[in-house]
Structures are given as structure tokens and as C-alpha cells.
Amino acid sequence: MTVRVDMGVAPSGETIPIDLEELLATRLLVQGNSGSGKSHLLRRLLEKSAGQVQQIVIDPEGDFVTLADRYGHVAVEAADHGERDIARLAARIREHRVSVVLSLEGLEAEGQMRCAAAFLSALFDAPRDHWYPALVVVDEAQLFAPSGGGEVTEEVRRASLGAMTNLMCRGRKRGLAGIIATQRLAKLAKNVAAEASNFLMGRTFLDIDMARAADLLGMERRQAEQIRDLPCGTFLALGPAIARRPVSVAIGPVETSARSVSPKLVPLPQAAAEDVQGLLFAPGDDAPVFVPEPPRAPAPLPSEALLQSMASSVSRADTAPAKSDDETAAIVATVLEAITADPDGAARAASVLYQDFAVRCRMAGVPRPPLDLPAFTRRLSMARAGIFTEGDDWSPALDAAASLPDDMLGPFLLIARAAREGTPCPTDEAIAASYGTASLGRARRLLQYIESRDLIVSRTDLSGRRSIAIPQLGWTTAAA
Fold first, then answer.
1. Euclidean distance between CA atoms 361 and 344, whole angstroms
2. Where are any strands of DSSP class E within 88-174?
3. Cβ contact 414:434 at 8 Å
4. Name one GO molecular function term (predicted).
């Protein structure tokens, strides 16, 4: 039996129908930007084919539930049912051949994908005796068959994409004819879009979407520009169920309307400012009365007595008994030891730690930092190598490292200390920590740089143990 559904008219005035029986075997893809008339097209197809074939609509926005009033579709609010109930419902829909609109309006994106996956899988897994022909319309199909990962979990994305793939690739033998609509072909999984043989391409503006639409319509790339110029409600149609060559069709009128409509400009209300404020701030039945917070008075300026007190406290700190050089050196060594012992200090820059150094020295009775930032950076590198005081013992090592930047002094002195004491060679982790980093690769590149300056010589024996010598000083670490 041949049933033709009148979709609209061509520019020549000729009626453009869709062969419903051919559509059941070849599936349909509809594309168009928001406002291009996709939902109007789907509504026209559903209204004109109602009573001829079972219709199953997956409706993310709840726009098609109005079909229930005129054409007898059963509207199902997915938010009121669990996943098992949805799957059981799908099986009964196939058994009893009832036309249904599944509204996903009350669900978040992940919930919509879970529900659609369960519903489509149950339709697909119905017993063979229930494989009756049905149109399965999926609006906003890019939500359920995305081309890439999104904010939902990978498990949910795979389930939804698998159900959509089954619908479009293997649904024909089970009587399921997929009709999918999308705003953007680039966001729709290619293996889902590629299974459709009929196309209705509406207005779109992005070059990538126009190019894909032109490819599907068999048009040359330079002809793709006309897709951008299509008026609202007009589509380029192609496919065995519609036409053998691309033809423009203006979709005809519909008898039902969506619950949500395109916004229209309406005049703003005319009311005095005080009346509007009364409407906005009027208390509700069970709401507390809104009382605006009184403006705060500006903070009073400090009194003369307070300023004098602050000045005297600063002067007392500056006139505190001065520390001797030995006492100051001891305080600096103690503060450096405390800073390097802090686990969080290893990853902090010297300029940041300098502020901590100044505060700790002040708390210890040294009002002004005894080291400037460059000197502190050098002493911090020494401290990270376990050397907290300057003395003649380390003068040869410091002289050997004179050509190195101050931040590289720590790793060199760490090696020098192990070489002087004959202890095992420091690990890459220890060298990285002395450099203020956690990157082992950076530590290895640092060793290569120091070795390129002829300051150290690294050796690795056959068992993989490393030792480092400092030829200028005649010191060598033990192998480790």
C-alpha cells in the first residue's frame, strides 16, 4: 500500500509528498539552525501520517505533547517514572501499537540520555512478534548521539549513542524507522547521520554544517551558500522517499502548536517608578517583610592618640637592643632551617619565601631582614642542600660553583656535600627538591647542564648505580 504524505510545495507550486512506505525503509535526517522550522516540519509529518502508522516521539522540550489532544497520542512525562518503568512502557508500546510522545522536559541532560537509552533499547529488544512498523522521531538528536564527549559520564554517553546507533543502523528490520532532527550536523555522531537516506536541510550558517549538508545532498561546495539563504520553514529535500534530485520545499501549515512558542515583542507596561517598587518588594503570604539595610556610616578616621600610639610601637621595635653579628647569623640559620623543613616550602618561589623569612626574623628580634633578596636566594639554595651557615669549610665548593646561577647552587652543594662525606650519590628526587621542583626530568636536565660546565662528572656502572665526582675539588660520591 502506497501512502503519500503532503509536506508542502516547491517554488513551481508542485506538491512535494513523502512516500511513507519508502520512508519506513530508508529513514530521514532533518537539519536546521534554531528557528529554521525543524519542529514545524516534524509536526507536519506527524499530523499528516497520523492514523496511517504508529508514531513514537522522543521530545526533549515537551513541544509535541499537544498532539495528544487532537490525534490521540499518549503523552508520557518521563520525570514521573523510573528507568525500569520506561523500559517496561516501551515494550508495551510495541506490543499494543500505541502512538506515544515521551516528554523529557523535566530531566537534566544526563537524565534525558539515560531515559532515551533505556526507552530506545527496549523498543529495539521487543519480541519478534511485536516488530510492527513505527516512525521513531527523535528531536534534538545531537543530545542523544553527540559526536564527542560532554559533561555527562562516559557510561551514559555510550549507552545513549549505542541506542541511537541501533535505531538508525539496525532498526529497519525491526520495523523502526528513525527520523532524527538536529540543529548542527557537526555535533551529531557521523555513524548515526550516515544511515539516513532521506534529507531535509534547512537554514544553517556555520561553514562546517553547510559543507556537510551539501555533501549529503550531493551538491558542490560552492552551491552550499544557498543553504544559508533559505527562508524559515523552507528545506532542501532529497532521498528515495522524496525526490531523486534536491528540491526546495516550503513546509505546509499544521493544525496543532507547541506549548513553547518563539518570543514576540510586546509593549512594556506603563507604570510609575514607585508603583513598580511596590510590586517588587511587596511581602508574600509567608515571606518576611523586606526591609532595606540602612546605609552604613563611613568608618571614623584614626584619632591623633591612636596614630601616636602606632608610631611609638614602631619606634620601640626599631630601638630594641641590636643583635650581635653572631646572634643574627644564628637566627638566620634557624629561620632557614625552619623554612626548608616546611613541606609546602619546597614548591614556593624564593621571592615568596623571602616574605616568610622577614616575618620570622622580626619575630626572633631582628626588626629588619639581615639579607636582601639575592643574598636570601643564595642562602636558601645552600639551606636546601643542608648547609645553613656560611663558613670556611664550604668556601672551596662555593668558589667552584661561582659560575652557576644562585638557584642552581642548591643541587651542586647537595652533590658536593655527599662527595665530601663519601655518602651515596643523591637521588633525582633529592636533587629536584633542592632545586625547588618536583619534576625528575628537570632535575636530570639540570645535572646535564652542570656537567656541561665541567663542574661535575657523572658515571654509571654496569649495575646501573650512579656516582658523581667533582674534579676541581677531588671529591666523589659513593655509587647509588
1. 19
2. 100-103, 134-138
3. yes
4. ATP binding
- Read off the C-alpha cell for 262: 518563539
- Other Cβ atoms less than 10 A from the Cβ of 1: the count is 5
* 102 phi and psi angles, rounded to 5 deg: -95, 105
Cell of 281: 518588594
Put simply, whether the predicted model's pTM sits higher than 0.70 gets the answer no
Domain ranges in the chain are: 4-251, 323-390, 393-480
Q: How far apart are the first and last CA of the chain?
A: 86
Tell me the pLDDT tens digit for each residue of 164-177.
999 999 898 999 99
| Distance (Å, whole) CA 28 – CA 215 | 16
Mean pLDDT over residues 113-131, rounded? 94
CATH architecture of the region 393-480: Orthogonal Bundle (1.10)
Residues 369 and 272: their CA atoms lie apart, in Å, by 65
Instruction: Please give the Cα distance from 197 to 240 (Å, whole number).
Output: 7
Q: Which CATH superfamily is domain 4-251 in?
A: P-loop containing nucleotide triphosphate hydrolases (3.40.50.300)
Choice between 472 and 151, residue whose per-residue pLDDT is larger: 472
